[in-house]
Amino acid sequence: MRILLVEDDHVLGAAIRDHLTSGGHGVDWVQRLDDAQSALDTVSYELMLLDLNLPDGRGLDLLRRLRRGGDLLPVIITTAQDQIAVRIEGLNSGADDYLVKPFDLSEMMARIAAVARRYGGQTATQLVLGDVEIDQARRVVLVRGESVALSAREWAVLERLVSRPGAIVSKAEIEESLYAFGAEIESNAVEVYVSRLRKKLGRDLVQTIRGLGYQVSV
């Protein structure tokens, strides 16, 4: 996924960014609301992690502007404020979920995956595609009952494809979910990862739709 992280705490922000990146996500990290707005105006994100208290204002003000404008970007709020009233205000402003600091990074990943599944119209964490079984919650893939190891980037490509089984996913969409600002994008990166997935999971799992993108068989 391509994720916008809005967090002004340097230590926490770096930890979240590194954990998300190691999980195969593309992360753009900003520390101010004005930078967050500039990023949103430039990039099509799949999720935002939003701190409430920032140097130039409240995260809820940005969230409310998005929702008033009809933007349905999934948003998970992160805050040190544990009061029920604050949580209710955030949810009523359009947040999809809440993480109270300090939080476990594994829980953060699980909540991100859950919100992404809801927006993709997919509530189940397990998929069966022919001989391939995919457990997205545990990040486990079985081929004819045998476990297959995937790298973080291979997982990112697979999750992007299976988020909409049967739909065509363009190369640009996959690139957006893989890389953050400043990352070097090799022209054949997507083809390389798709090729690796075919070798590990079977050549028929991912179809190339010439001129349009890729499609996972259903």
Task: Summarize the structure in words.
The chain has 218 residues and is α/β, with parallel strands linked by helices. Helix content is 41%, strand content 24%. It is built from 8 helices and 14 strands. A 5-stranded parallel β-sheet has the order 2-1-3-6-7, sandwiched between helices. It has a 4-stranded antiparallel β-sheet with strand order 8-9-10-11, with no helix packed on it. A 3-stranded antiparallel β-sheet has the order 12-14-13. The longest helix is centred in the middle third of the chain and has 15 residues, at 105-119. It is globular, with a radius of gyration of 18 Å.
Q: Counting H and I runs of at least 4 residues, what is the number of helices?
A: 8
What's the mean pLDDT score? 87
Largest sheet: 5 strands, parallel
Radius of gyration over C-alpha positions, nearest whole angstrom:
18 Å
The first-to-last residue Cα distance is: 22 Å
Strand order of the largest sheet: 2-1-3-6-7
Order of helices and strands: EHEHEEEHEHEHEEEEHEHHEE
Shape: globular
Q: Uncertain runs with pLDDT below 50, 5 residues or more?
A: none
